[in-house]
Amino acid sequence: MRCFIGIDLGSTTTKAVVMDENLQVLGRGITNSRSNYDTAAAVSKQEALIDTRLTLFRRGLDGIPSLAGQVDGIIADLERNFRHVQFVEQLDDLQQTCIGNIKGPRYVGREKAVVEALEEIFRRLQESSGALFVAGAKRKSDFFRDLAGADFMQVGETVARDAGLPFDLILNVYDKSIIEVENRPPAGDMEGKFLRALEKGAGGQGRAEMIIKPVQAALAIPLDETYVVGTGYGRVRLPFPKEHIRSEILCHGLGAHMMFPETRTILDIGGQDTKGIQVDGAGIVENFQMNDRCAAGCGRYLGYIADEMNMGLHELGPLAMKSTKAVRINSTCTVFAGAELRDRLALGEKREDILAGLHRSIILRAMSILSRAGGVKDQFTFTGGVAKNEAAVRELRKLIQENYGDRTINISPDSIYTGALGGATFAVRAVVN
Amino acid sequence: MSDVVKEKSMLMQKEMIARNYEAITSKHETGRKVSSTFVPGNLNELLMCFGIVNNLPEINAIQSGMRKVSGNYIQEAEKRGHSEDVCTYVKADIGQMSRGNIAPNGKPFPDPDVLLLSYTGCYTFMKWFELLREEYKCPTLMLHVPYQGDGHSTKTMRDYIVKQLKEVVIPGLEQVSGVKFDIDKLREFLRNSAKAEDDLVWCLEQGKIKPSPIDAYFGGVYYIGPIFTAFRGTTDAIEYYKALKAEVAERIRLKQGPTTPDGTPFNDQKYRLVVEGPPNWTNFREFWKMFYDEGAVVVASSYTKVGGLYDQGFRHDAENPLESLADYCLGCYTNLNLPSRVDLLTKYVEEYEADGLLTNSIKSCNSFSAGQLMMMKEVERRTGKPGAFVESDLVDPRYFSAANIKNRLESYFQMIEQKRRGSGKAA
């Protein structure tokens, strides 16, 4: 089937959306940009194609009356099992890479011990990896680096100690290897992996037999990459001709229009950009403003704060929601805000209250960009990674109400894919229209 | 990058500028007096009456920006206590002075004999000359030009300037130079000015043609060079504008666009822009490339009017010499209020059939950048054409963020393209 793909190469994450020729979204994929846009583009595209397969499975299974009401569960099981197969494969790769990287004077005479320690670490990681992918498991991140890294640190320290080896010997080899593995997109053979995932169990023998045929049929559909459009900061790195590249302003405008056709104003807060965009009734950009010369108040600001507070990025919003008191953070400079944060902590302010203040200061910056772009019209759509943060959304709602009155505020759970969605729509238009 | 390809008029101008630097730096040998003055409100013809050589610190700062030495000068000035927010022309000049004050010809700049400050809307000029006066301890002559706050000049304003010329500026220059003022000499120079001005205006107005044979911003800064600096009133300037006019006429005949620094005629013009604000000088060529690579040509700009609004009808007038110097100063773009600037930019977008107004806002220019966003919105409202806003600096290389600027420019051009295809094509 003809597939139209939009890829949004952001500074933090790279997103891809696959669409069919009727502008229906088939799949979405995301990965960390890892300073290697080629890999990021390849991985996000592969992820979106994996998601496309899942959509095709769903379509195949939806037609089976005896599975009514069970399809969501089956697809979720299949995906988790597929992820586990993929994770195990990457762990294998990481193990081989680590062993290959045991080189240099520090290791002389200790090679065997280090290899044995690594083998033990990876044995334990393999063993415990199932738990990461059981139904309902909470993961701090979906990226291999984060998942494997966290466990490696924990297990590695114990194993190294028991083996009487300095942990930094192990860590050193890991640091070198994770970058190599991360920059190597997971091997192809998506179909084989799905079949293996299927074998891992999909709820009893009878059910497995019932679903295997439709799944195989869905796997047999060829996914042709008919047209790919790239956007985002890394777009010049994409191996596409110029007409396949669109500015992210246009892609975000069109993407937001596709999600919410009544949208007239869009706020996008990404890793290093804050954009205020006005579009007309057809999703055509009328005006835009971006942050100038300084990326304070963008997504990276939250990343920095999360690091400072030794928290995961996804944990910031929920904690800030617990705030009962507003703490003012005045600095618009990310680094200074870090200093303010430590100062407030020292003064005994609660973490949640400080975090609420930080979220407010981000949104205040965004409000100023929106006013420069011509204000907030109805309807208003908030996109980008920061739109997933409930504390940021809460502040935004408050400030829009105060400054512009009643506005319909749209936030899609898939808002992070807005740019890629716009790109995919451009891809369809380039061929179909 | 390859070497810049220059047209004949550009080489002519280069040679003229070199000659002027030679005249400045050889003042001890020739015995000529040197004045420092500014581009807006520049009284070159008057200085010529006294045989005084005209040195323009702004132009020196631009030169050091283009030669990539301004960054060091600015840091030097900051070391001496000038804040990060101060106009970078000033800091480049101050930094250059503290590093031996070497002119582009490699010889040291001599101290000026007089500072002639013609104040036309930029308050930084006054502070700049205070610093220079402190440094050089030489006479300062200030011509106070009233701001056109109400959007027009009056006879009182004109009389006030003429009175200052008669009572302060001319006697001051006589004293510095030891030369008696001769009004007939001034008339002769003003006649030269008007001739050159006619040809300049003709060239600028060819931006109305499609494809445009000129680039009124990146090319424009070359076109205005002689008239804005030490050559207005000279026969050199008349010759220069004749040559420029011939080049533009030839391009029209061949249906060619302006020549880019790569030496190729820029014919594939997809977007026609009006630009407000000065260019960035430290990355001038890179900045220009971002436009022509995407097919954007500038058909009119306000920067090419900071040294005089000749295209709006003003000419130096030999019949009313001092009055016309007064009118000239009053009418510089820097001396106009915001509504007049909006009127002018709107007129340009319409008359030059532009796709929109692009503003390059200058980080360190507080007096000129204020209100630019409002102006842009008003021009957008009146013309229905989209505007865009980019930010950089004059000669501080630290404030040129190529990735950001390119990103915004490309977004802007694609937005114009998308709008052109029409709202009919709903997603």
Topology, element by element:
The complex is a heterodimer of chains A (433) and B (427).
Chain A: E1 2-9, E2 13-19, E3 25-32, H1 37-62, H2 71-100, H3 111-132, H4 144-163, H5 167-182, H6 190-199, H7 205-219, E4 224-232, H8 248-259, E5 265-269, E6 274-279, E7 285-290, H9 299-308, H10 313-321, H11 334-346, H12 351-372, E8 380-383, H13 390-404, E9 409-410, H14 418-432
Parallel strand pairs in A: 1-4, 5-8, 8-9
Antiparallel strand pairs in A: 1-2, 2-3, 5-6, 6-7
Helix pairs in contact in A: 1-2, 1-7, 2-3, 2-5, 2-6, 3-4, 4-5, 6-7, 8-14, 9-11, 10-12, 11-12, 12-13
Chain B: H1 8-25, H2 27-30, E1 34-36, H3 44-49, E2 53-55, H4 57-66, H5 70-79, H6 88-98, E3 114-119, H7 124-136, E4 140-144, H8 155-177, H9 183-205, H10 220-223, H11 225-228, H12 235-253, E5 271-276, H13 284-292, E6 296-301, H14 321-330, H15 338-351, E7 356-362, H16 366-369, H17 372-383, E8 387-392, H18 402-421
Parallel strand pairs in B: 1-2, 1-3, 3-4, 5-6, 5-7, 7-8
Helix pairs in contact in B: 1-12, 4-6, 5-6, 8-14, 9-12, 13-18, 15-17
Estimate what percentage of residues of chain A fall within beta strands.
5-15%
> Do you know the CATH topology of the domain at 263-411 in chain A?
Nucleotidyltransferase, domain 5
Strand order of the largest sheet of chain A: 7-6-5-8-9
The CATH class designation of the domain at 8-179 in chain B is: Alpha Beta
CATH class of the domain at 263-411 in chain A: Alpha Beta
**How many strand elements of chain B?**
8
Outline the biggest β-sheet of chain A. Answer: 5 strands, mixed
Q: Which value, in Å, is the CA radius of gyration of chain B?
A: 21 Å
Total number of helical segments of chain B? 18
Helix percent band of chain B: 40-55%
End-to-end Cα distance of chain B, whole Å, is 41 Å
Instruction: Bin the strand percentage of chain B.
Output: 5-15%
